[in-house]
Design goal:
With 103 residues, this protein is an all-alpha fold. Helix content is 76%, strand content 0%. The protein contains four helices and no strands.
Length: 103
């Protein structure tokens, strides 16, 4: 990772990785709600807590930043899973025919 700081690329690298991490979470939200509904929110809570602990535990600023981005993307996903349920209710996304819905 010294290469990144030597050539002042750390910020650009963190930005690209942030974009990819957030982009990864969008289909995860859709799939998680489709298969498990909102019951899976606690998984994202645990992932977020693990990311925060990991961010505090590493000395490398780039890795600590990416773990922080991962942690707070996980926390944000909790909200998004509940909002995804509303989008399914409105018919914007398909319902899982193998699952019972509250609505």
């Amino acid at each position: 990772m010294e290469f990144l700081t030597t050539y002042h690329l750390a910020g650009l690298f963190i930005g690209i990785c942030t974009f990819l991490i957030i982009g990864l979470f969008h289909p995860v939200v859709v799939k998680a709600e489709y298969y498990w509904g909102t019951r899976c929110w606690w998984i994202f809570l645990l992932l977020g807590i693990a990311g925060v602990v990991g961010s505090f535990s590493v000395d490398n600023i780039v890795l600590a930043s990416l773990l922080g981005v991962f942690a707070f993307s996980s926390f944000w996903t909790i909200k998004e899973v509940f909002e995804q349920e509303e989008r399914v209710k409105k018919g914007w996304f398909p319902k899982n025919p193998k699952r019972k819905y509250k609505f």
